[in-house]
UniProtKB/TrEMBL annotation:
PANTHER family: BTB/POZ DOMAIN-CONTAINING PROTEIN 9, BTB_POZ DOMAIN-CONTAINING PROTEIN 9. One of its GO terms (cellular component) is cytoplasm. GO terms for biological process: adult locomotory behavior; circadian behavior; modulation of chemical synaptic transmission. Residues 85-190 form the F5/8 type C domain. This is F5/8 type C domain-containing protein. Pfam families: F5_F8_type_C (PF00754). It comes from Adineta steineri.
């Protein structure tokens, strides 16, 4: 963008803070001084691609900003530079794939990856990946970005988590020219398979703790690529298909035998959650008792809800200290009518409008989860998370021109994640430990 455009057009649009304009003018001034010593032909070629450039303060790079548009496409001149069967990843087909075709892959070792090069430096904050999902396998991986293909910044690290199907990755805005996805684990073999990649700058408020998304909306849905991996029902995934009205004595619920196993839901990727909602079968006056455990690796489980001594009926709204969740296991312990536990509907987290109403009615919070020492309590988390719930409840996202910036869509919550632990910890405690 030229100096003239900044001064004559952008300045009077009132879309940007004047400090940002001054930063952009200063950057152009520096580039102009530098270009005197550089090849004039190179400068001319670069200037033709300067439309829609946006300056990120504190960075040495400028990137093009395209709102809510997938820029990892052949139309935008993106290309796969690393990986086997390169042609499949960006062909726009996320439905026609099987064991032999429709994906890009790389052997899982310390040397290989799948890399996509964009049409130039671009500002991004969201990536969607489709992991091969025609069976029950799960993958682990990490994602890095670079502007010069020399220095790489890791924006997502899911090496310790089991992920499946569609991955919706959120992160603070970053300028990237290349995006590298490195598979580190496959539960079936030693190959990492990626069906599709989409890259965006989205205008959607979102919250992060580290590199893990803290969703406001229910992610235990078919649309969210969740699955019910254990439990008996007449219709597969009936528990999370969104239908909590059509159930009777014979159908519309998921169940398990008391004292044997449980009902297990697997989310598509790790999320930080602190609430759930479920509907117990209630076509008569029976009551149930149960408990719920969560895990991020399907091996280490923590009890987040204990209702074994309660007589529970119909809708249950559950809150607990925030934690990283991939797997949820619901274990029934009692039914006043028979020896089977029946659940009609499940949400994780609880629907925002319902949770907001529930919290407004609470005078005190009593939780019975297995909370780690010094970890964040539910009340502390909810206090900081509530503004996002309010936004979702009101369905009124903040304007992208607030404070004159287009780059303030995310919220970094002041908590940290510790290795091999599912609980969330206050940021100040980590800083105190470093200072001692």
């Amino acid at each position: 963008m030229s100096m003239n455009e900044l001064l004559k057009i952008v300045r009077y649009s009132n879309l940007f803070d004047l400090n940002h304009l001054m930063d952009a003018i200063d950057s152009i001034n520096d580039e102009t001084k530098t270009s005197v010593n550089n090849n004039n032909d190179d400068s001319t070629n670069q200037s033709g691609n300067n439309k829609d450039l946006f300056l990120i303060r504190g960075k040495n790079y400028r990137g093009r900003l395209r709102l809510d548009e997938n820029i990892a496409t052949k139309i935008h001149h993106a290309q796969v530079t690393d990986g086997e069967m390169k042609h499949a990843l960006l062909d726009g087909d996320a439905t026609n794939y099987d064991l032999d075709r429709g994906f890009t892959r790389h052997p899982i070792d310390d040397m290989r990856s799948i890399c996509v090069k964009l049409d130039g430096p671009s500002i991004i904050n969201h990536i969607k990946l489709l992991l091969w999902d025609k069976d029950t396998r799960a993958y682990s991986y990490y994602v890095e970005v670079s502007v010069d293909d020399l220095t790489w910044t890791r924006i997502i690290d899911y090496r310790t988590y089991l992920c499946r199907s569609w991955q919706k990755l959120y992160f603070a805005p970053v300028v990237a020219t290349s995006i590298r996805v490195v598979g580190t684990h496959n539960t079936v073999n030693k190959v990492f398979h990626l069906v599709s990649m989409e890259v965006y700058y989205i205008q959607k408020p979102f919250a992060l703790i580290g590199d893990i998304y803290a969703p406001v909306e229910n992610v235990a849905t078919l649309e969210g690529s969740a699955v019910v991996s254990e439990g008996v029902s007449r219709v597969r995934n009936a528990l999370i298909n969104g239908d909590y009205l059509s159930y009777d004595w014979d159908s519309g619920y998921t169940c398990h035998q008391l004292g044997s196993g449980g009902i297990v839901i697997q989310l598509c990727q790790p999320h930080v959650v602190s609430s759930m909602r479920l509907l117990l079968w209630d076509c008569d006056n029976r009551s149930y008792s149960y408990y719920i455990e969560t895990s991020y690796d399907n091996m280490t489980w923590s009890k987040v809800v204990d209702r074994q001594t309660a007589a529970c009926r119909s809708w249950e709204i559950l809150t607990f200290s925030p934690r990283i969740v991939v797997f949820i296991r619901i274990c029934g312990t009692h039914n006043t009518a028979n020896e089977v536990f029946h659940c009609v509907h499940f949400e994780c987290p609880c629907r925002p409008d319902v949770l907001k109403s529930y919290m407004n009615e609470q005078t005190s919070m009593l939780t019975s989860d297995d909370r780690e020492e010094n970890s964040v309590a539910y009340e502390q988390f909810y206090k900081l998370f509530e503004p996002l719930i309010d936004t979702a409840t009101l369905n009124n996202p903040p304007s992208t021109t607030d404070n004159g910036s287009l780059i303030q869509m995310h919220t970094l919550l002041p908590f940290i994640i510790k290795p091999s632990l599912s609980s969330i910890y206050p940021l100040e405690k980590e800083n105190d430990e470093k200072n001692t």
